[in-house]
Amino acid sequence: MSNITITVDKALKRTMKELKDVNWSEVARGAFEEKIKMEKRKKAAQAIKKIGKKSKTGWSGSEEIRKWRDKTK
Fold first, then answer.
1. What contacts 71, CB < 8 A, 6 or more positions away?
2. H helix runs in 7-72, sequence order
3. Which of 23, 43, 48, 50 is the most buried (most CB within 10 A)?
4. Which residues touch 6 (CB under 8 Å, ≥6 apart)?
5. CA 55 to chain centre
6. Average pLDDT over residues 44-67
7. Furthest C-alpha separation in the chain
8. Running DSSP on this structure, what letter comes out for residue 56?
C-alpha cells in the first residue's frame, strides 16, 4: 500500500481522535473509491452523449441499454 497525506482542520482532527474505534484510513479509501466510480460514470455518460450527438440515426444510449438488457433475459 502507498501512503498519502490529507489536510483537515483542527476541529475535525480533534473529533476524529475522539472516535478511536473508527479506521480512518478505511473511511478515506472508501471515499476515494466512491469518488473514482462517480467520475468514471460521469466520463462514460459524457462519451455516450457525444456518440449520440454524432449519430445521424437518432441513436439513444438508454434505448441501446434497454435493447441489450432485453437480449439477456
1. none
2. 10-18, 24-54, 61-71
3. 48
4. 28
5. 27
6. 80
7. 60
8. S
> For the chain, how big is the Rg over CA atoms in Å?
21
The C-alpha angle 44, 58, 63, rounded to 5 degrees, equals: 55
What gap in Å lies between CA 63 and CA 71, rounded to an integer?
Answer: 12
Mind listing the pLDDT tens digit for each residue in 7-49? 999 999 999 999 999 999 999 999 999 999 999 999 998 988 8
Residue 26 in contact with residue 20, Cβ under 8 Å? Answer: no
Q: Cell 473529533 appears where?
A: 15
Cβ neighbour number for residue 61 with a 10 Å cutoff: 15
Tell me how far apart the alpha carbons of residues 40 and 58 are, in angstroms, rounded to a whole number. 25
